[in-house]
Give the backbone structure.
Amino acid sequence: MAYTAKNFSSLIGSPGLSETLLKNHFTLYEGYVANTNKLLDLLSKKAKDATNPEYAEIKRHFGWEFDGMRLHEYYFENLGGKTAIDKAGKLGKKLAEKFGSYEAWEEDFKATGKMRGVGWIILYQDNVTGDLFNVWIGEHDAGHLAGCRPLLVMDVWEHAFMIDYGLKRPDYIEAFFKNINWEVVQGRLS
């Protein structure tokens, strides 16, 4: 099976995210899709030999490329919104229940995004308990909460903001929040 890059060009024109930034980001995402496919092809041609260092390294690197692909899809899919969250809706109520209020959740999510370093900020839902967590993920393929569903994904690698914001990550985070598609995020809630 080969993966196909999704078209996110409808996001061009999003407030606070320039066309140049978005097109560069789309190109990076397309690279993850292409590399995922290349690794799948290589793995299909290699003997399943755990003692072969080449096989082992391809197998290890697959998670990096696949998660890079998938996290970018979550990220782009949860952008493009034009309306604020419905605080009386299912997600708004769940955030208030877990964090005390929507505003307390937003403050925690943004604070997590402003932490030093690169990676992803993900609002996860535990598939077992339904609990919600704001989590920092430093590498695509490490640190994810097992058995949890990503609801909202924010990219905080430099490529996501430096063209437009330089080192002003908090300004990017504000632009990100203005573009969240809350319908998509709520649709991920189980």
